[in-house]
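Bumping my old thread because nobody answered last time. Still need a sequence for this structure:
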C-alpha cells in the first residue's frame, strides 16, 4: 500500500483533528473557519486522508472514552512465548473483544497486550483464562497503579514534533455515576465512529431516535463526567513517519516514582506514562511509551530521561509487529 504524502493543508488539518473535534452539528465547518478555507475543501482533504484503500494517514475518527470511568478494569499483560508459537498465540489473544492492543516486542517477554473487562468480571481470572487458551505460557499481569500521562498528537507540520495530550491525568472521582442503559446505548452507537461528511453525527442521532443537539449535549455531559476524553482522529503512526515505538521500562523505587515520572512527562516524545505493579522477576515500576522517527531518537530520549532523573536501570522494548490496535468496544 502506497502511503499518501500530505501537503501543508493536510498536515495542519491532521494536527487539528487529533486535538478534539468541535461538538457541533457541522464540526468540519468550524474547522474550515479556523483554517480559512471553504467547508467542502476541508472535507475533500480529510476524505483523502481517511481513505484506507489509498494508504490513509487517519486510522479512524471517533470517541476516546475513559476505561476506568466507564466501570471497566484493565491490565497490561506480558507473555513469554516460544518464537515458533508467537503468531498462533497472538491470533488467539486477538480474538478476545477486550483486547485493544497486541504487540510483539524485542525481549524475553515478547508478546504484550492490553485487556479490559467490565467491573463485574475479575480481571486476573480473565487474564489466566485467555493466556491458558492461547497456550498457557508464562505471563505477567501488570495493571497500572497510577496514570501520569496518556495520549499523543503527532506533529506533522515543519518543526512540530510530537505534542503532549492530557499530561497529569486525574483519577476519575469516587462516586462517579455509572452509565445507565441510555448512556450505554449512546456509547455503543458513537463508538462505531463517524463518516467524513458535513453532518457526521446525524446518522448516530437518527439511530438513537434523538435530535443532533440532544446527542451533542449528551457528549458534552459525558466529557464533564469524565467518561469521554475527547472526540478525535487517531493516526497510523508509521504512515505518519514515526517508525519507532519503544516501551521504556524503569526500575524506580516507589518513593521516587513521582519525581521520575515528572521528568519523563515533560518530553513530547513520551505519549504514555504509568506506574505499574512489580514482581521479583520484573522490577520495573515505571513505564513510558516513546514515539520517534527512528530507534536512535527513541534511545536518545531514554538517555535524556535517565540522565535528568538519575535512573540507570532501564530497558527499551521496541515493537516489531502490531497484531492488533483498535478502540475497545464498551458494553458490546
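Sorry it took so long. Here it is:
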Amino acid at each position: 500500500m502506497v502511503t499518501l504524502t500530505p501537503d501543508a493543508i493536510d498536515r495542519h488539518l491532521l494536527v487539528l483533528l487529533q486535538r478534539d473535534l468541535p461538538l457541533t452539528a457541522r464540526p468540519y465547518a468550524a474547522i474550515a473557519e479556523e483554517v480559512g478555507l471553504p467547508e467542502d475543501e476541508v472535507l475533500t482533504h480529510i476524505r483523502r486522508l481517511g481513505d484506507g484503500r489509498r494508504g490513509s494517514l487517519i486510522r479512524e475518527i471517533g470517541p476516546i472514552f475513559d476505561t476506568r470511568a466507564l466501570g471497566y478494569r484493565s491490565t497490561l499483560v506480558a507473555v513469554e512465548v516460544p518464537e515458533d508459537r508467537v503468531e498462533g498465540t497472538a491470533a488467539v489473544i486477538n480474538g478476545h473483544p477486550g483486547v485493544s492492543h497486541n504487540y510483539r516486542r524485542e525481549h524475553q517477554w515478547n508478546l504484550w497486550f492490553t485487556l479490559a473487562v467490565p467491573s463485574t468480571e475479575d480481571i486476573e481470572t480473565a487474564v489466566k483464562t485467555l493466556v491458558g487458551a492461547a497456550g498457557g505460557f508464562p505471563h505477567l499481569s501488570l495493571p497500572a497503579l497510577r496514570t501520569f500521562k496518556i495520549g499523543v498528537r503527532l506533529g506533522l507540520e515543519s518543526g512540530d514534533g510530537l505534542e503532549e495530550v492530557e499530561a497529569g491525568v486525574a483519577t476519575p472521582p469516587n462516586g462517579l455515576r455509572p452509565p445507565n442503559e441510555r448512556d450505554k446505548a449512546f456509547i455503543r452507537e458513537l463508538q462505531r465512529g463517524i463518516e467524513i461528511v458535513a453532518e457526521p453525527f446525524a446518522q448516530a442521532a437518527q439511530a438513537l431516535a434523538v435530535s443532533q443537539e440532544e446527542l451533542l449535549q449528551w457528549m458534552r455531559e459525558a466529557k464533564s463526567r469524565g467518561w469521554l476524553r475527547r472526540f478525535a482522529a487517531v493516526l497510523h503512526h508509521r504512515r505518519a513517519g514515526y517508525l519507532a515505538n519503544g516501551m521504556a521500562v524503569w526500575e524506580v523505587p516507589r518513593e521516587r516514582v513521582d519525581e521520575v515520572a515528572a521528568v519523563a512527562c515533560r518530553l513530547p516524545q513520551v505519549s504514555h506514562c504509568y506506574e505499574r505493579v512489580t514482581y521479583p522477576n520484573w522490577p520495573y515500576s515505571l513505564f513510558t511509551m516513546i514515539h520517534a522517527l527512528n530507534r536512535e531518537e527513541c534511545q536518545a530520549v531514554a538517555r535524556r530521561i535517565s540522565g535528568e532523573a538519575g535512573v540507570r536501570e532501564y530497558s527499551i522494548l521496541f515493537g516489531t509487529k502490531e497484531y492488533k490496535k483498535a478502540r475497545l468496544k464498551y458494553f458490546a
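The first strand starts at residue 58 and ends at 65. Let me know if any region looks off to you.
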